[in-house]
Amino acid sequence: MAGISLATPGYPAFNVYDIREPCVEFGTCYPKNHLNEVMNSHEYRNGFKVAEEVKWETCNIMPHLALLHDFDAMYSWKLGSLLDRSFIPILVMNGDKDYITNWRGALKWTNAMRWNMDLLYRNAPYLPFFDEDKKYVGNFKTWGPLTFA
After folding, report:
1. Contact 108, 131 (CB under 8 A)
2. Are 70 and 78 in contact (CB under 8 A)?
3. Residue 123 has what pLDDT?
């Protein structure tokens, strides 16, 4: 049965973005206005230095629907040539409690990706990451423009 996505297990009792939390509302597992509240919060806007006059709003659903046909497609192979041609910082980040994204798979493809600094990236050490309160929250590794967290 090729082409079947196993992204979500029907209507789970757990939150697919953080399996430690319950799913409180069908779909994203968050209340409908949750994303608007977070993205427009003072803490978020200040932390990411978003200008006060810029307001976040949800995207038009039509581009999302138009791209659903390649939902399971893998485009990571194109990232290597982008890394070779520019110095645009790229962050690959997956939570270890996220059901939908697979951090082990993302680590594997970032390590396997071919680009001009791939050997240096593969051998880069993992460093601890701390939040603003100096609390340890995880590890990351980085080399050149590529960071995996």
Report:
1. no
2. no
3. 97
Strands (E) in 23-79, as ranges, are none
Q: Which is nearest to 93 in space by CA: 132, 36, 138?
A: 138
Beta bridge partners of 90: 146
In this predicted structure, what is the pLDDT of residue 9? 53
More confident residue, 104 or 71: 104
Is the Cβ–Cβ distance between 124 and 142 less than 8 Å? Answer: yes
Q: How many CA atoms lie within 13 A of 104 on its CB side?
A: 2
Regarding pTM above 0.85, the answer is: no
30 vs 57: CA distance, rounded Å: 16
Give the model's pLDDT for residue 3.
Answer: 40
81 vs 20: CA distance, rounded Å:
37
For residues 27 and 8, the answer to whether their CB atoms sit within 8 Å is no
Q: What are phi and psi of 50, to 5 degrees?
A: -90, 130
Chain position carrying tokens 């939902």? 71
Contact 101, 17 (CB under 8 A): no
- Six-digit token pair at 71? 């939902």
